Amino acid sequence: MTGRAFRLQAPRVPETAIHRQIADCLRLEIAAPGKVSRAGVVWWSVDMASYEGTAPGLRTSRGCIAGVPDIFVLHRGFAHHIEVKADDGLVSLEQRAVGTAILIAGARWGVARNADEALALLDAWGVPRAGRVRVAA
After folding, report:
1. What is the rounded average pLDDT of the residues 1-18?
2. Domain residues of the chain, as ranges?
3. DSSP 76-124
4. What is the architecture of the domain spanning 15-125?
5. pLDDT band of 7, cuts 50, 70, 90
6. How would you class 10 by CB atoms within 10 Å of its CB: exposed for 0-12, middle for 13-18, buried for 19 or more?
């Protein structure tokens, strides 16, 4: 036997699965994406992933930029943006730059690594939700 020790590691949960988990919670807490809740909140996801095979410049020519947050929540005319990250994911330079621009423009921006963190952001921002999902303490 070799001298290498075996180490157990927690499974890596991909960012797409975390994004889906957060979206499922937002469906319960707010409304379906693109639908306005009784409290006047609307949300949707933004997919700006870089797909292979797209024509160079196709997105940028339309004003699409790298770093746009994954989830957009609007309440009473105030914008709230959530960047979804896996536990081992890092916020890129482009994401930081867009997040900074969002904050300078007077909107809100935060990073969530799971549904609890996303709901905690909404609570901290004062965005009304149904209260069907409790945030872990």
Report:
1. 84
2. 15-125
3. TTEEEEEEE--TT----HHHHHHHHHHHHTT-EEEEESSHHHHHHHHHH
4. 3-Layer(aba) Sandwich (3.40)
5. confident
6. exposed
